[in-house]
Design a protein that fits this description.
Blueprint lengths: L1 E2 L6 E6 L8 E7 L6 H8 L9 E5 L5 H7 L8 H11 L5 E11 L2 H10 L4 E7 L5 H11 L10 H6 L4 H7 L16 E6 L7 H10 L5 E6 L15 H14 L1
GO molecular function: hydrolase activity
Keywords: Hydrolase
Organism: Catenulispora pinistramenti
Length: 251
Amino acid sequence: MEIDSPDGVLPGWLIPARGVRGRAPVVIFYNGFDVTKELLYCIIREEFADRGIACLVVDAPGTGEPLRLRGVASRPDYEVPTKAVVDYLETRSDIDPARIGLLGISLGGYYAPRGASFEPRIKAVAAWGGVWDYGELWRHRWETRSQTTPVPFWQLPWVMGTETMAEALAKVTAFTLAEALPHLTQPFLIMHGADDSMIPLSHAERAIEAAGSADKQLLVFDGVDGGAEHCSMDDSDPARQLVADWFELRL
């Protein structure tokens, strides 16, 4: 499918809910820094569908096809593409517009909470990997030439749509949730690995503390009950099952 947005077409796949007659709830699933909608499907598979929830995996600005085929850079105000995606979902006869959730993985842990903070039609939001200040994270990576940086340094200017690293570091300073999260009132879940070497656990802790949500929870996976690495990719099934169950209770 193709979703019209201010950044041009956002391509996505809708994984339909199983066993639902009429309109189904849906979870929008956002990419991370270097993820694509094809990988999102491999990560989530049929977990939402098996619970009677549709799932829209979508390439938004700075990810997937928009970045790779059309040069569409990322943007800090992810409520803009979020509004466009929700507008599209409201046109579908198979989707319940009153039960729309939003999930983001890795840098999607910034995109999803930011989008939900300023889009009240999102009814629940989860971050598979907590993010607080992505600009701070990248300044530290660059200044220390960190050996745990998960991608080549040249990738930041590419995703930010800049010519130089200095310009990219300036643009990414806007990627902070400090001003957005106090506006978040929807149920909010963060899942984070205890041994995440890419994004420190402190980011998740600061984000959950700042959120205005009454229903908010930080779950830390320690390697016993699920993978302890970034986004639990060393053992992702417990996190995948948990987040699907969490949305089932809230949509």
